[in-house]
Every structure is written in C-alpha cells, then in structure tokens.
Amino acid sequence: MNVYVILAIQLLFASVTHIAAKAVVGEVDALTLTLLRNVISVVGFYSILIVRGIGVRIDKEYRRSIFLLGFLVVLNQYLYLYGMKYTTAANGALLYALTPIFVLILSRFFLTEKITLQKSLGIMLAFIGVTVVIFERGISTTAEFAFGNIIILLAVITYALFTILGKPLVLKFGALSTAASANFTGLLLVLPLGFYNAATFPYERLHTLDWIGILYLGIGTSIIGYLLWYYALRRIDATRLAVFANGQPIVTSILSVIFLGTTITPQFIIGGIVTLAGVIITQRK
After folding, report:
1. Which listed site, 59, 81, 102, 175, has its alpha carbon 20 to 30 Å from 166?
2. CB-count exposure of residue 234 (10 Å: 0-12, 13-18, 19+)
3. Residue pair 177/56 in contact by the 8 Å Cβ criterion
4. From CA 251, how far away is CA 257, in angstroms rounded?
5. Euclidean distance between CA atoms 202 and 259, whole angstroms
6. Contact of 93 with 134, CB cutoff 8 Å
7. pTM of this structure
8. Residue 257, by phi and psi: left (phi above 0), alpha (psi -120 to 50) or beta?
9. Is the dihedral of CA 217, 223, 225, 230 positive or negative?
10. What b/e readout covers 248-271, taking b as 16+ CB neighbours within 10 angstroms?
C-alpha cells in the first residue's frame, strides 16, 4: 500500500486521539490511564504476533535502545494525558504541531538527515497554517492552561525522540516487532508505578463511553497508530513523516464539525490550505 495512504489513515487515528483523550482524562487519572492503555496495547500486539506466527527476538546490542524506546512511550503517554487535564484540545493540538520542528533538529544529530531549505520552509508553512486554525478556535493563556501547555510540550519532545530513535530499530526489526517490544517494555516500566492507582480505582463510576475512549487509546492509538507511524518511518525520512502531525488539528476540527456540530470558518479553510501546502512542499524531492 502507498505510504501516503498509510499516513492518511494514521492521521485519522491520531486526530481522534485528541477527542478521546480529552473526554477520558476527566474521569481517569493519567497514571492509571497510561497503565490501562499499555495493558490493552501489549495484549493486542502479542495477539497479532501469535496469529501471524511471528516471534520477537531483539539482538543484545539493541536491547538498551528498546528499553529507551519503551521509556519514551510511557513518558510520552503520561505527559500527554496529564497535560490534557489542564489545557484544551486546541492548545494540545497546536503544541503537537511543533513535532516536525523538533524532529527536524533532532534528526540532524541522531540520523544525520540534512536540514534542507525546502524541508524548513514546508514545516514552517504547515505550522503557520495550523496556527491560523488553532487561534481561530481560541487559545487560553491562563495559569492552569499554561501549566498544561508546558507538560504537553515535554510530551511533544518525547514523541519526537520516539520517532528519531525508533528509526534504526524499525529498519532492523520491522514496525511490528519494534512497536510490540517498546510497548511491552513500557508496560514493565509503568506497572510498578501505576499498579496501586489502577488496583484501587473506582471503575464502577465509568460509563460505556469512558471504556470506549480507553479502548480507543489502547487499540486505535497505541496499536494501529504506532504501527502505521513506524511502517511509514521505515519508508520515508523522519522529517517528511513528522510534518503530517500538522494535519491532526485540521482533521480533529473536521471531526468536531461532524460529531459536535461546530462550524467551519474562513480562517479554518485558509489555515487548512496553508497546512496542506506545507505538507506537499516537504514531500517533494
């Protein structure tokens, strides 16, 4: 399947994540939610491996890298979910639009990818387009939101590192084995910290929609989203891949129109066009 079709599907799953996360973090604390999400994803990943008859064997010299990747997985998830409790989906989406900028910088040091003028221009253009859309929806700068924004900014940096440091492993072991190993390692790391919270959490207060949100974060985001992201990372360079994160707030806004009844404004249309132009520029060779 064409890598850009894969990325379009991944973009859809990632965009729904913002809606699901914002709904669930009001009911479940970030640590418990991170643990539940990893339990679901690990069960799912290893079910896929069993069905496909694939074993995971990571060479000794790569195990430290897998450990680091697992650490980044749970750290990213916890920071993102914790930050979303204090800020808005709009603020979070804008901050995640910074992912390509961090990837651009980090890829130069970790992957020796060239920072070309074309890539830089495309990323900045896409970021401007996202900014137009997000500011049209409104940005809060109160102390509580500012705290949430700082936490999510840290999550963005960990996601950029997750992308950069994951590429050599994806090239060596494939997307499925790398993602499964990283999630399993992440579960081992978060289990001692989150077990008490998860064991004592009052699950009876959760509604069906809450469980749907939790399952979506575990399956839709952590399994399907990560797999598609790493599948694409194996085929294109990290900077060209990361710029697709700029499309998340655009797609999230469209989903809000469909499911929440919000309206599309001229600013949204302009911002969407500018963002699309930025994405296209970074993909041109």
Report:
1. 81
2. middle
3. yes
4. 10
5. 29
6. yes
7. 0.84
8. alpha
9. positive
10. bbbbbbbbbeeeeeeeeeeebeeb
